[in-house]
Amino acid sequence: MREAAFVKQNKEKWIAFEKAITLNSKISPDLLADYYIQLTNDLSYAQTYYPESKTLLYLNSIASQAHQKIYINKKETKNRVVSFWKYEFPLFFKQYHKTLFYTFLLFAIATAIGVISTINDDSFVRLILGDAYVNKTLDNIENGDPTAIYKSGGELGTFLGITINNIRVAIFAYAAGVITSIGTGYILFSNGVMLGAFFAFFYNRDLLFEASKTIWLHGTIEISVIVIAGCAGLIMGNSILFPKTYSRKVSFVKGAKDGLKVVVSTIPFFIIAGFIEGFITRYSNMPVWLAMTIIFSSLALIIFYYIIYPIRLNRNYAAGSY
């Protein structure tokens, strides 16, 4: 983009921001911070493509003033952790809903491949899940308890082990984005195929409902949040492949930070999923209505927090009622 076109495209935003910081306009601190982020992005772009230009000097000047106003006298809120999950993250995550949709689509396609492959060739599940796991599950089926594997081990030990393992998987799915979206895409695809093969294995033995009723107790949150962690990896991976107007380095740093925020947001949900698996899933003989209540409540929680709440909060923010 030519410098003149760059200036014409952004000058109104810069002027409004300059007035806000020099005239002490009544503007919310959060909105001021958003403007500052946009300004620093423009500054990075100008440093890359218009070095030693008057535009760069002008943006540097505004950025310096803004930094003084926003950060030097900034007071940390007393409840920073609560604020992150209640306001900061939902407001931030709305911009990545499209990435989340594509992440879910990739995972769903992979799951369908796992289902179709296992239904047509029952030996496929051994290739995906391993002989030891399949043989153990077949023994449990013969003993009349298809999901007995979830009843092994102590409750607390299972809770801690599952939670730590799930967080590790989420971090790995995110970190794989460092080799572009292909790395995270592979992890999502392989996990999707595994999930599809797993359920098709029970379908082939007319045990799909019984298995689903038990496994989705914890799996609803666990699988959903693994997909969301995959979204974090795609955010970082896409920042490398599609830097837009930023330099690739600036884009990558921004994508890595944004992806990390998404991963951090999943930690409480992995703890909930681990708790359910450790303390609740083992009671597979619970009434169907109770199992369905837990499953659909878990699904509603995920949909509300990651989709509905960010949309509502952004609308309220834009309307000035936040």
Automatic annotation (TrEMBL):
<feature type="transmembrane region" description="Helical">
    <location>
        <begin position="159"/>
        <end position="179"/>
    </location>
</feature>
<keyword id="KW-0812">Transmembrane</keyword>
<feature type="transmembrane region" description="Helical">
    <location>
        <begin position="286"/>
        <end position="308"/>
    </location>
</feature>
<feature type="transmembrane region" description="Helical">
    <location>
        <begin position="100"/>
        <end position="119"/>
    </location>
</feature>
<feature type="transmembrane region" description="Helical">
    <location>
        <begin position="215"/>
        <end position="241"/>
    </location>
</feature>
<keyword id="KW-0472">Membrane</keyword>
<feature type="transmembrane region" description="Helical">
    <location>
        <begin position="262"/>
        <end position="280"/>
    </location>
</feature>
<protein>
    <submittedName>
        <fullName>Stage II sporulation protein M</fullName>
    </submittedName>
</protein>
<dbReference type="Pfam" id="PF01944">
    <property type="entry name" value="SpoIIM"/>
</dbReference>
<keyword id="KW-1133">Transmembrane helix</keyword>
<dbReference type="InterPro" id="IPR002798">
    <property type="entry name" value="SpoIIM-like"/>
</dbReference>
<feature type="transmembrane region" description="Helical">
    <location>
        <begin position="186"/>
        <end position="203"/>
    </location>
</feature>
